[in-house]
Specification:
The chain is of the alpha+beta class. The chain is about 25% helix and about 20% strand. It has a single domain (about 35-264), classed as Extracellular Endonuclease, Chain A (3-Layer(aba) Sandwich). The chain has helices at about 1-15, 100-105, 125-130, 140-160, 225-235, 245-250, 255-260; strands at about 50, 55-60, 65-75, 110-115, 135-140, 165-170, 190-200, 205-210, 225. The longest helix has 22 residues, at about 140-160.
Length: about 260
């Protein structure tokens, strides 16, 4: 299914005058990258890169959780083929560095997904992977079941409306402020983020969100920022597979009304 999608998108993007492919100077992607690579950020120093079927993880052993999780999401992958697992486990390739069940027991924190289980319901293996602790961070229940859930639902709605989204998500840990840890030295993040990329109306668009790890009654767009702002806060480069001229242009602005029609 993904091969067919790649072929369709390659043909579509290469025929798109808005990208400057026909007679223009811009290329769709930098050489050596494919469409799924669009989601992969710069690695960051000291991270373990873990490849899963449904997503890629930049794992931070110091904080015992992902620094980022990146994946491409299509409408076809949002047709649920398997039921939610709810079987959390410690990934064997980072055994000793990742959370265990006991960390969360009576901790007061939810096991919050970074790549949501609902985004990974297109196969047994991707659903299973989504419950590995490399894809989990400590989240306050009011956050995980509240505004974070609303943002996840909005991402799926955008995916259905735009054919494909490229998503990077993770915790933002301030070492000076976020000093609380669970039993196995898993840091409790103070904030969480998402960075999104789409091709819409013959042009690339991005948006980012940065939210405190707490309950909120605000609208999700109140936490939206430009990707450039998020990069400055985190210190990594999002969507580096885009040509530099395109990346620079689309990451410096946050076009809220293009993403949230209710604001028009």
């Amino acid at each position: 299914m993904k091969y067919s999608l790649f072929l369709f998108l390659i043909l579509f993007l290469n025929s798109d005058p808005g990208l400057g492919i026909s007679g223009g100077s811009e290329k769709t992607l930098k050489p050596g990258h494919d469409l799924e690579c669009l989601a992969i950020p710069s690695y960051g120093n000291g991270l373990l890169i873990l490849n899963r079927k449904g997503f890629t993880v930049g794992f931070d052993t110091n904080h015992r959780q992902a620094f980022w999780v990146a994946y491409m999401l299509t409408p076809g992958e949002l047709v649920p083929l398997v039921k939610r697992s709810n079987s959390f486990y410690s990934d064997i390739d980072v055994k000793g560095w990742v959370a265990v069940d006991a960390d969360y027991k009576k901790s007061g924190y939810d096991r919050g997904h970074l790549a949501p289980a609902a985004d990974m319901s297109w196969s047994d293996s991707t659903m299973l992977e989504s419950f590995g602790y490399v894809n989990i961070s400590p989240q306050k229940p009011t956050f995980n079941r509240g505004i974070w859930k609303k943002l996840e639902e909005q991402v799926r709605a955008w995916t259905k409306a735009n054919d494909t989204l490229w998503i990077v998500t993770g915790p933002l840990i301030d070492r000076k402020v976020d000093t609380m840890r669970l039993r196995n030295k898993v840091t409790v993040p103070g904030r969480f983020y998402k960075a999104l990329l789409r091709h819409h109306r013959q042009r690339w668009q991005t948006i980012a969100f940065l939210m405190p790890n707490s309950g909120s009654k605000a609208n999700i767009w109140e936490y939206s920022i430009a990707v450039d702002e998020l990069e400055a806060a985190i210190g990594i480069d999002f969507f580096p597979a885009l040509p530099d001229s395109v990346e620079c242009r689309v990451e410096r602005v946050c076009e809220l009304k293009e993403w949230f029609k209710q604001l028009n």
